[in-house]
């Protein structure tokens, strides 16, 4: 395993201390691979001094260590050909050829080194239990295989294996079976060493998942293993990246580095490095999220609405992470959390809005990056006018005066008042307003045609309301045709007129007075005419007497008139015969 310390010291000749973009090495490396790391600054002011250390000791440009310093970064490359921090086993002492006979004592030493120290074992081919029943002596980096004495069954092939979990190194020894143990010249077999024509493998690198606008970020793409030449390409969200104002790409023979400078709010996305050779390809993808303070995507504005309607005040902001939206009412210092009022997208909703919602509100957008956004808006709730119901006297007599008032209980000025009688607009000097919310209609004097359906209509820019009441005008009866005394001859037709006017129309009643001194004993007569006339046809002697006509409509005092009807008998003619 490669043990390279990730501790490093960066000193800055400035009060603004630098911040380093974290990096790491692969957890496991193999011999002959290359490994690198880039120490990049996220922020800070120059000049900078970079130092690389391994296990607390400074590293220099020698013995396979390559350090390249830039203005804001330092790149470390470890060349495995000359500098292997983790190495597969290699032979320290190879066994000698041995020839012996049965009964002799023979020992064969197998010694190897590596990092970490290898484990050395002997096995006998076709006999997996061999190492369990043969004596052996093990010390650091070596194992002694002991035959004491050599037996006929010891003939066979033996293998020494040196392993340190990264590579295995083997020595195979064929042994003659005719009482003689032969140890031929051994061959070291490295079973894990890189092949000549390997496909490329990228060393995966960690970079900050969250960066801030204005910072500079470097994304290294380094080859762990593979056969050159290498062809690198960079992509953002599957779209090819070319060097431009914000992107710089620097390629070397076995690495590529993408620099984003400066980071903008549009820099968020998936960044992919691909490498291709004629032997294969590999890719690495890193997601970069840009910390961006809130910025209005829709800045709330003052709004005017009508009471009773559904009203919304949008408020939204962009940023990374996505900003949270809060609404507060300034005069109540209350944060709205009711889902019926605050929608998921930050819109303040009133369903429906009423006058009590009128006031000042503040929308806050914050994501813990930079300063939060705040905007105060005013909600003005206009009211369509609502008239307070008014009433009129059931009846009013002609000659009196009347004042009608039309008052508005609610409604946003300016208000426009109009009066109508029987759906006809009234235009008179008798219509006056004492203030902006009351209108008076004065009728002075009341005349017969003053009665009717009176309506008050109030309107403003948000709507209108109306209220109506019926005015009934009354007038006491007056004679149109006053009845008079009549003298008729029996069997003639009597037509005695009794006509009166008034409001409402008077009711005509005829009564016969049995005793002129006592009208209480009068008897009502049936009329035979719609105009109130008393008709007797034929009139008889018995009809003679006093009659009273009464005109009454409930307004004022009724009219009454008593008349006398005299019936004379027919004249008798005497004819003399001479």
From TrEMBL:
SMART domains documented for this protein: IG (SM00409), IGc2 (SM00408)
GO biological process, one term: homophilic cell adhesion via plasma membrane adhesion molecules
Keyword Membrane: no
Organism encoding this protein: Trichonephila inaurata madagascariensis
Molecular function as annotated in GO: axon guidance receptor activity
Top-level taxon of the source organism: Eukaryota
Ig-like domain: residues covered: 18-60, 89-172, 200-289, 294-378, 385-474, 476-564
Taxonomic classification: Eukaryota, Metazoa, Ecdysozoa, Arthropoda, Chelicerata
Keyword Metal-binding (UniProt): no
Name of this chain's protein: Hemicentin-1
Keyword terms of this UniProt record: Disulfide bond, Immunoglobulin domain, Signal
InterPro entries: Cell_Adh-Cytoskel_Orgn, Ig-like_dom, Ig-like_dom_sf, Ig-like_fold, Ig_I-set, Ig_sub, Ig_sub2
GO CC, alphabetical: axon; neuronal cell body; plasma membrane
Gene: HMCN1
């Amino acid at each position: 395993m490669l043990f390279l310390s990730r501790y490093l010291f960066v000193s800055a000749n400035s009060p603004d201390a630098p911040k380093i973009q974290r990096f790491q090495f692969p957890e496991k490396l193999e011999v002959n691979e290359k490994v690198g790391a880039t120490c990049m600054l996220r922020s800070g002011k120059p000049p900078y001094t970079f130092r690389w250390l391994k296990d607390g000791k400074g590293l220099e440009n020698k013995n396979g260590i390559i350090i390249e310093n830039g203005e804001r970064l330092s790149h470390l490359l470890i060349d495995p050909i000359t500098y292997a921090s983790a190495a597969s086993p290699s032979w320290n002492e190879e066994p000698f050829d041995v020839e012996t006979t049965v009964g002799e004592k023979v020992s064969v030493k197998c010694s190897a080194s590596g990092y970490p120290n290898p484990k050395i074992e002997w096995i006998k081919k076709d006999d997996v239990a061999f190492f369990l029943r043969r004596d052996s002596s093990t010390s650091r980096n070596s194992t002694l295989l002991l035959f004491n004495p050599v037996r006929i069954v010891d003939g066979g092939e033996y293998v020494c294996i040196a392993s340190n979990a990264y590579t295995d190194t083997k020595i195979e020894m064929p042994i003659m079976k005719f009482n003689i143990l032969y140890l031929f010249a051994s061959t070291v077999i490295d079973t894990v060493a890189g092949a000549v024509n390997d496909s490329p493998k990228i060393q995966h690198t960690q970079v900050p998942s969250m960066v801030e606008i204005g910072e500079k970020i470097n994304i290294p793409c380094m080859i762990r293993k593979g056969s050159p030449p290498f062809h690198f390409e960079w992509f953002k969200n599957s779209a090819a990246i070319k060097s431009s104002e914000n992107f710089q790409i620097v390629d070397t023979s076995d690495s590529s580095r993408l620099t984003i400078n400066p980071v903008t709010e549009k820099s968020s996305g998936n960044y992919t490095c691909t490498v291709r050779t004629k032997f294969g390809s590999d890719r690495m993808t890193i997601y970069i999220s840009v910390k961006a303070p809130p910025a209005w995507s829709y800045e709330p504005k003052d709004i005017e609405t009508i009471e009773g309607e559904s009203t919304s005040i949008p408020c939204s902001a962009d940023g990374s992470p996505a900003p949270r939206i809060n609404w507060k009412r300034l005069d109540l210092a209350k944060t709205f959390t009711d889902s019926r009022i605050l929608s998921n997208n930050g819109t303040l909703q009133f369903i429906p809005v009423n006058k009590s919602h009128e006031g000042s509100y503040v929308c806050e957008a914050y994501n813990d990056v930079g300063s939060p956004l705040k905007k105060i808006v005013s909600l003005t709730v206009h009211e369509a006018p609502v008239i307070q119901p008014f009433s009129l006297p059931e009846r009013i007599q002609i000659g009196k005066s009347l004042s009608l008032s039309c008052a508005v209980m609610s409604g946003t000025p300016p208000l426009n008042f109009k009066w109508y009688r029987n759906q006809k607009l009234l235009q008179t000097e008798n219509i006056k307003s004492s203030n902006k919310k009351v209108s008076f209609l004065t009728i002075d004097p009341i005349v017969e045609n003053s009665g009717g359906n009176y309506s008050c209509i109030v309107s403003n820019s948000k709507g209108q309301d109306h209220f109506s009441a019926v005015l009934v005008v009354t007038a006491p009866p007056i004679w149109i045709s006053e009845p008079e005394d009549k003298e008729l001859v029996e069997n003639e037709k009597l037509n005695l007129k009794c006509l009166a006017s008034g409001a409402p129309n008077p009711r005509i009643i005829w009564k016969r007075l049995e005793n002129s001194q006592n009208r209480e004993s009068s008897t009502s007569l049936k009329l035979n005419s719609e105009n109130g006339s008393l008709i007797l046809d034929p009139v008889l002697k018995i009809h003679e007497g006093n009659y009273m006509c009464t005109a009454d409509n409930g307004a004022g005092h009724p009219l009454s008139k008593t008349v006398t009807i005299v019936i004379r008998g027919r004249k008798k003619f005497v004819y003399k015969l001479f």
